[in-house]
Design brief:
elongated; mainly alpha; single chain
């Protein structure tokens, strides 16, 4: 009886060739390629670089829980600062500048987050400064609201005073 192997699968796709492991000292348990150099100490390699469990994925930095949270908090503090700056430029009449700052927010957010992931000390410093600047930011926010409300208040007050004078003048 002779066994023959088909070169294609049942749906017509070609089979993956089985790598030749005769000249490989430590073949990968998954693919059969060289699992890596063995220095003679410790456990022998079982998997190639492609199949190792702790291999980093892509070029993204490895993120620990605390660094991730710290970078997000610092990024939000910086975005808030940019928003306050945009509001200030709008109040001063630089509407195009304020629009440009607002339009670049998402790109800035992503770049700042990536940069702050690599420097947890800087992220912590920004977050610490953000707690004191948070009070300042709240005062600035109320100031900005006042800048928008005070002209309306002044106009209404002027109208009310004119109405009362008109009523007082008509009554006598």
């Amino acid at each position: 009886m002779t066994l023959t192997f088909e070169e294609t699968t049942s749906n017509g796709l070609p089979l993956d060739p089985i790598p030749d492991t005769e000249d490989v000292e430590y073949p990968c348990l998954k693919c059969g390629r060289e699992a890596g150099p063995y220095g003679g100490r410790g456990p022998k390699p079982k998997y190639c670089d492609e199949h190792k469990k702790n291999r980093p994925k892509g070029n993204a930095p490895r993120v620990k829980g605390a660094n991730d949270a710290l970078a997000r908090q610092a990024t939000e503090a910086l975005v808030q600062l940019n928003t306050l700056f945009a509001m200030g430029t709008m109040v001063m009449g630089y509407n195009n500048t304020a629009s440009a700052i607002a339009a670049s927010e998402e790109g800035f957010r992503a770049q700042a987050y990536t940069a702050l992931l690599t420097d947890p000390k800087l992220a912590a410093a920004i977050t610490r400064a953000g707690t004191t600047s948070g009070k300042v930011a709240l005062m600035i926010a109320y100031g900005m609201m006042g800048v928008n409300v005070v002209p309306t208040l002044a106009l209404e007050h002027k109208e009310k005073v004119a109405e009362r004078r008109a009523e007082d003048g008509a009554g006598t």
